[in-house]
């Protein structure tokens, strides 16, 4: 009988609840987190990492990875932080203000924050000459998303017919191609400056012209070059032949910033491959071209991901 009474109570409770307006509060799904990057360069002192972490955490952000470099016997601090955040809770404008306050607190030389999903891609122009292996690889890297850039134009001192792979690719994707015939007396630098004035940085994809001091100073932004040799050895022209005649056992490619001194800018990336007495000059060149493509592509990605910081006069920190 007790069981019957209990069942009757349960049924009666269910019937009463059926006549009531019962509301359930559903929680809104959490906003998707967005990835951010921050790099910092300032005089070293106690508490920088703590303040940096607090700046991000106080807005609900979470650091996923952090790299710190403090050179021995030098009062300099470098860092790069990967973090995630809710853009609703931490708007982009507020983020800029927060990191600006942090940089002012520590008298920062450099403080840059980037949100790849929200910020515009870097705009670049590519300069190339006759050899197009680096140019083609760069274009395909842009097409498949490996290189997070927008290519505004390609400039070359070498004429290409309309039926070539490069021209067809550029036309298909709406990227202008500018042929500027150069001579020893006229490098067409004024025209180049006009074409690249709205870019964030330039890429020299085997552009076999030396840019003048006036050009570098007038442009004012970074320029990334690929050298088909393992710098600081074998500078200048035909480094593969220089390396072959020197009997080296390793050949390489170097991506570096362009400075007024030829092939002497701060190095961003280097790649090497072993060679032997069985290699001839042609195989040296073939191996070098493969290295050049990989090296230039990686340097551009590192730059866009804020992994490259200037260090001293001729060095870089690459996180």
Q: Work out the radius of gyration.
A: 28 Å
What are the secondary-structure elements, in order, as H or E? HEHEEHEEHEHEHEHEHEEHEE
Question: What shape does the CA trace take?
Answer: globular
Number of strands: 13
Proportion in β-strands: 25-35%
Low-confidence stretches: 1-11, 16-27
- Helix percentage range: 25-40%
Structural class given helices, strands, pairing? alpha/beta
User: What is the rounded distance between the termini?
Assistant: 77 Å
Strand order of the largest sheet: 7-6-5-8-9-10-11
Average pLDDT confidence is 91
The main β sheet shows up as: 7 strands, mixed
Number of helices: 9
Layout: helices, strands, pairs:
Blueprint: H1 2-18, E1 34-43, H2 48-57, E2 62-69, E3 76-85, H3 92-105, E4 110-114, E5 122-128, H4 133-143, E6 149-156, H5 165-173, E7 177-179, H6 189-195, E8 201-204, H7 213-219, E9 223-227, H8 239-246, E10 250-257, E11 267-274, H9 281-304, E12 308-311, E13 315-318
GO molecular function: formyltetrahydrofolate deformylase activity
Organism: Canavalia gladiata (Sword bean)
Domain ACT: 37-120
